[in-house]
Amino acid sequence: MEEIISYLGLHIDKIFILILSVFVGIEVIGKVPSVLHTPLMSGANAIHGVVIIGAIIVMLEADSNNIMALTLGFIAVILGTLNVVGGFVVTDRMLELFKKKPKK
Prior knowledge:
With 104 residues, the chain is mainly α. The chain has helices at residues 2-10, 12-30, 34-47, 50-61, 67-97.
């Protein structure tokens, strides 16, 4: 328990910034009109491909005997890929709504 308290004491500035960024993020997202919310979020999901790169780097740097790091890295690659593909699918579907329909 003392380790946790000393860790929190050493990193209180980072914790404070994290809490403030949560409130700022809620305020920014709360001001987005509902029409733009889905394309904005799907585009943000597509940008999160950085997670895939980070997971691959973690897997490359992990020791071959460290099964936990390799497993978590593999799961992160899978989930990051699903997130990116889902972001592109949702964005594509939203853009289809704005295309003119052919007249019969």
